[in-house]
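A.,

Following up on our hallway conversation. Structure tokens first:
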């Protein structure tokens, strides 16, 4: 059997792959060294920055954390008008969650001020986007002649990224590294810091964690906070500047429920992002494994799906049930699929209620999410959101609990929902509070 041609061919392919992999790794390591050395030669005409066996401190810093490489100010271009300039990246696959919210906030502020709308792409660059169409689909109209982009994604120590600044420009950021950069620019007005989570906890105790936390202390920004519950977290952690100066808003991630012909099969969805620690992927799949061992779950016919990240394999539970991964879905497919979900598992070990929790609750699905510090109860958004302690065991109990909810009851709960569906309406009054600070 082991001498069959197919087996021999597979072994040969495996051997070739192993050798090729080693060669590629060695080549990559060598090319990294060449790139680093040639960069140093360009900077100081020697193999090392000072001609000795040493490396310039900034080379170490910005090589280790390239996202904080400075942006350099430049004089405004001829006839440049004031703009709301948002630091962001534009993804041709579509706009989700925090990036979408950043675009909504910035565009509505630009319209309120009567300014141009400019996107400075600081991390990745793409010209293949439909930003204006996307905004228009949400009722936010930006004329084409008022819109522009700037590519700052390729900046380095030896190749500066320049941002032409008008004295009346308003900068909007929503990540700690963009806030770090904005705080160093010679702005005439404080930048708007759209705070959508508590970013220091995104990292282990580390330089990035410290740098992220420091951005909340510069006092060079106006805090604009995504949800009251996140604002209360900052208050509870004694961020005095944010407490006294912040404006908070409730987002509008709600989706419109379309009538569906229901079957006896219940659909369970897991928001699966193994590469995002705060989404507790391991505890979530363990919770599903524990839940499906329970006898009461055998009364139902279930289909289990996951989505959020490509490359996640389908997972077989101890019960024999399969979690089928749908990968990173585009918006149209995601919204269509969301309409079919009865139960959503959406863990989030942070003080912000993640958008999938609110999206699925807005459609009448039962949602199991997780508690953390000041985020203990989300029923004020929807009675269909059930909070669990961030352990597999408690999440499993809550999954079993929500499985008992009838379709009639969970859909009736929609009447008590307080999840916004319209972004311009949700932001109107809050942007009206912000805009006078920039006039």
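Then the amino acids I'd put at each of the 439 positions:
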């Amino acid at each position: 059997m082991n001498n069959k041609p197919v087996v021999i061919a597979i072994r040969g392919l495996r051997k070739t792959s192993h050798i090729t992999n080693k060669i590629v790794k060695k080549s990559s390591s060598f090319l990294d060294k060449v790139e680093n050395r040639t960069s140093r030669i360009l900077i100081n005409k020697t193999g090392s920055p000072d001609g000795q066996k040493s490396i310039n401190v900034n080379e170490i810093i910005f090589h280790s954390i390239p996202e904080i490489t400075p942006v350099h100010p430049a004089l405004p271009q001829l006839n440049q008008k004031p703009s709301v300039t948002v630091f962001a990246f534009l993804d041709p696959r579509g706009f989700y969650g925090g990036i979408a919210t950043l675009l909504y906030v910035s565009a509505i502020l630009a319209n309120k001020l009567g300014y141009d709308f400019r996107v400075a792409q600081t991390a990745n660059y793409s010209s293949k986007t439909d930003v204006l169409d996307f905004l228009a689909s949400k009722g936010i109209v930006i004329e084409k002649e008022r819109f522009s982009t700037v590519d700052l994604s390729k900046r380095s120590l030896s190749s500066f990224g320049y941002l032409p600044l008008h004295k009346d420009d308003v900068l909007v950021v929503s990540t700690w590294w963009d806030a770090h950069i904005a705080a160093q620019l010679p702005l005439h007005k404080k930048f708007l810091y759209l705070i959508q989570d508590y970013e220091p906890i995104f990292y282990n105790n580390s330089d990035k964690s410290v740098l992220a936390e420091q951005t909340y202390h510069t006092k060079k920004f106006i805090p604009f906070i995504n949800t009251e519950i996140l604002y209360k977290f900052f208050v509870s952690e004694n961020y005095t500047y944010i407490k006294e100066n912040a404006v908070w808003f409730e987002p509008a991630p709600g989706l419109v429920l379309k009538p569906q012909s229901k079957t006896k099969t219940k659909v369970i969805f897991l928001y699966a992002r193994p590469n995002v620690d705060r989404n507790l992927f391991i505890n979530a799949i363990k919770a599903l494994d524990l839940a499906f061992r329970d006898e009461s779950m055998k009364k139902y016919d279930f289909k289990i799906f996951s989505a959020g990240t490509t490359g996640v394999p389908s997972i077989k539970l101890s019960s024999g049930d399969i979690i089928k991964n749908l990968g990173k879905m585009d918006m149209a497919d995601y919204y269509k699929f969301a309409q079919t979900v009865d139960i959503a598992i959406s863990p989030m070990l942070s003080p912000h209620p993640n958008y999938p929790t609110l999206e699925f609750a807005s459609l009448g699905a039962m949602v199991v999410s997780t508690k953390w510090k000041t985020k203990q109860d989300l029923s004020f958004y929807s009675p269909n959101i059930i909070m669990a302690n961030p352990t597999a065991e408690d999440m499993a109990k809550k999954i079993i609990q929500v499985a008992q909810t009838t379709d009639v009851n969970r859909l009736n709960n929609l009447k008590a929902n307080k999840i916004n569906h319209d972004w311009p309406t949700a932001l109107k009054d809050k942007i009206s509070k912000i805009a006078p600070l920039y006039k």
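The radius of gyration is 25 Å. Curious whether your intuition agrees with the design.

B.
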